[in-house]
Protein 1
Amino acid sequence: MNDNELLSWLEKAKLGDESAFQLVYQATHQDVYRTVAFLVYNKQDIEDIVNEVYMSMWRAFQTYDPNRPFRVWLHGITVRLVQDWKRKTWRRIRLFERNRRMTCEHFDWTDKAVLQFEMQHELFSLVRQLSYKLRVVVILRYFHDYALEEIADILQIPVGTVKSRHHLAMKELRKRIEMTGGDAYVH
């Protein structure tokens, strides 16, 4: 369902119609889940963040401008919540650093059914190795096909910063492909 088809349901959801909200949820859930899964490794955290995205969306409906693409707005909420989660996690990790060193945690990527197609690509593992700031630009650009200006809007950073991160990410991916001797092509 595209943004234009969602507009009437969004208006109803803004007025408190729970069934309209449920329809918006169903139309966007898989997309939001995959975006979070690309940015976060722990399955439980992914599910918690996705739930928080929809609670935040429900609370923020009154601020949504229907002249702006809905999915850009929703991905903005998603990325900000992932960034908040990463900050909170970093604080927790620092507090429990000694315990973490003693136990070896294994991060389960996510449900194989959700990411099965993406995991088949050679570039997928390379994208996962990028820093968060580079990875989020690559995911928004190539997974969601956002223009650089839209990515700047979602991340609330200057377009020049997005271009710089995009360039650096592509350079890093090319370097890693050369190192692995892979045949994948990054343009």
Note: Residues 104-111, 113-121 have pLDDT under 50 and may be disordered.
Protein 2
Amino acid sequence: MAAIEVGGTAFGYDEAGEGPAVVLLHAALGDRRMWDAQFTALAATHRVIRYDRRGFGETRGETGEHAHYEDLLALLDARGIEQAALVGASMGGACALDAALAAPERITRLVLLGSGLTGQPWPDHMLADIADLTAALFPDGRLARYQAREREVDPADVRAMAEANIRYLVAGPDRDISVLPPEMVARVREMCEQVYRHDWTAPQWTERIPDTRHRLAEITTPALVVIGTSDARGLVELSAHLAESLPQAEFVELADTGHLPSMERPEEVSALLRKFL
């Protein structure tokens, strides 16, 4: 394990290259391995950092109260980085936006791929889809018991939860999983199973969550908003909202692409990043 200690917590971490700093922030479906292609591609011209956020991958979720964007800024401090571009996928994008509000002078560029937004409730149709999926998988309510750490975890349930995420988000609600490269599906499955094994067994901690949704107009950092058109409709709608609300945003739609374009279309995403950064 490569690690960097920040505030008493060891974060799984990789760094390569020289030049302007870029930090890659992973989605909640996985960990820093989702950036394998971009980590290598960008290291030719940039100082690239990727790490596992608190509670993911090789980073423990310590008890207490924490904020992901504060961890990010503390990590920059620990590496002596005054300014960096942030590339965030899904909830990694939400973390990037939070950091851009907390320390705007430190963030030079924002790239948001299928981004979340802290404080923004998911639309009713997306909540209904997720409720239907989880009800089908856990009709006896054992999901709530897993989340409360009240039940020993069945590996079959971990696998089923990962598969549901792959079908609904990674492929997208209107595509079959067979459209994805098999090696990509295997890697996402491995990461996502680890997410749920950890989420249902590790010590619980409280995340301090800022409300960023009403402050987007304050973020004047140049931004690139990227969305796969086959992603869940709520995320497609959210990316369009981000592109409209951020004062200096470019908007790129990737046709026939799901929630993890960095893995589904690695060369195209790497090229977009090199051009924007």
Note: The two ends are 29 Å apart (CA to CA).
Protein 3
Amino acid sequence: MSDPLRPRASLRTAVVWEVLRDALDRRVKAAGREDGGVLEVLDTGGGSGNFAVPVARLGHRVTVVDPSPNALFALERRAAEAGVADRVRGVQGDTHGLFDVVGRGAFDAVLCHGVLEYVDDPAEGVRNVVEALRPSGTLSLLAAGLGGAVLGRALAGHFSEARQVLADPAGQWGAGDPVRRRFTAEQLSELVTAAGLEVGAVHGVRVFADLVPGVLLDAEPGAMDALLRLEAAAAELPAFHSVATQLHVLAERG
């Protein structure tokens, strides 16, 4: 079972997981809840539960909205194996019709990870997930970074494709690109601000992890931990946002 705390998965999730866990802890303390600090969390596009299950392990209730029945089936199985089936609920849907399946203003935190790259209208997608938040809610937004794609294609020797990423309005490298849209940190921050939230922090995710050959991590003792520490150190530095594979924005109301 994939878990943000396991080494291989951590290369892709560690930075976001640490930021998210701290944000949820702060939300619990700020709320002063009498129910033991249980938050209502919405995970849009949460798939098979890479984040939903670990969040449920913290004691929170998580609703996962995803268009894929197969992903939701895998989520159910994963939640059961982790012993959190009573705290994880999966419903079929997407951000466009979000309020057909969940209520407005019903959640303390919303995760929108890997969604904006594929929706027809990113601004509408952000507005919808923001409307799902309670007045003091927290948004965790994760999307594909423009600069990381440029660097990745260039280092692979695909120089024309790297240039195409820069020229294309959606940041695609060609017709075969599986990612429909990529963003800069400024673009994501503007979407969040326009939806009425205040940006608390921006992080670069997978700045180095996608560029380091796996054989190096397997051959060098301690290389995995060292790379994780490097990713964490670079994540908050604006200079590295422009070359990150993904960008993470943490935002709140008021």
Note: The first strand starts at residue 40 and ends at 44.
Protein 4
Amino acid sequence: MTEPTPVPDAAGGGSRTATVPPEPIVPAPAAKQASNGHRQNGAPRTEASTGESAEPGANTHVNGTPAAVPTAVTRSDARSGDDVEAGIVALWRSYGESRDQNERDRLVLHYAPLVKYVAGRVGTGLPAHVDVADLIQSGIFGLVDAIEKFEPERGLKFETYAMQRIRGAILDDLRSQDWVPRSVRSRARDVERALERLGAKLQRTPTDRELAAELKIGLAELRELYGQLQLTSVVALDELITPNKGGSSLAESLPDDAAEDPVASLVDQDSRRQLADAIAQLAERDRVVVTLYYFENLTLAEIGKVLGVTESRVCQLHTRAVLRLRTKLNEQSEA
């Protein structure tokens, strides 16, 4: 007598019965039969519910005697693209009826790659200090708004509609962070286009009068517009001035007026050394006059009292000392 055993059908789904010839089974102790996965009466047990597969014809041994093992059934959980699309359609239908927040969040997770794609496209022409993560954060709000306002019954494609709403949300957030009015930005673009047209036509840089005529405005109005456009020429201090990642930022290249110039400090130290060497080579009386006049801040009359000479004589000594110092410094610089 044979026992039906479930095996996979030709299509891979469901099961059908097949006849497996019985093999002689030798009775074994109950404990050993239980440990080998067999029933107490010696009949084999089907393990189709466990999901484990075994090769057809594989045998286990009970007391050294082979026993029949049924073939297990393996079912695939992979869904095709049509199944995923059908699931999204059903999710849209359910969300349209219930407006459940959990279902909306599932739709947001499904369409989240659209936000990253649009943010990457928008961020291509923006300055380097604009973080793409901030654009993605703004785009998520646009995606949520698109999901809440989308009407699937119209038969339109959601991706096309959502990309426009995501891009609009990103641009709105960028405009809200801009300190320059939109009208000034628009005028700046008009000036740039006019400069390009005139440059291509004249093959040179146009003058202000020619640019004003191209824009159909007066020369005074053009110069006033230049003052407004200065607001748009602002860069971030943390923007790199070199293309590689190891480059310095713009803030590091700005001069510090309060800092000491190392080149000027070295030049000053060298000049002082040369002056000290030249003073040391003067005559003693000339050296005393220079020291008292420039370092002690004494007047010529006070120096005359110290040296016991008249003020006019001190003036003559000072003039002679200065001329000698100038000659020695010129000789050192030429050497």
Note: The chain has a mean pLDDT of 75.
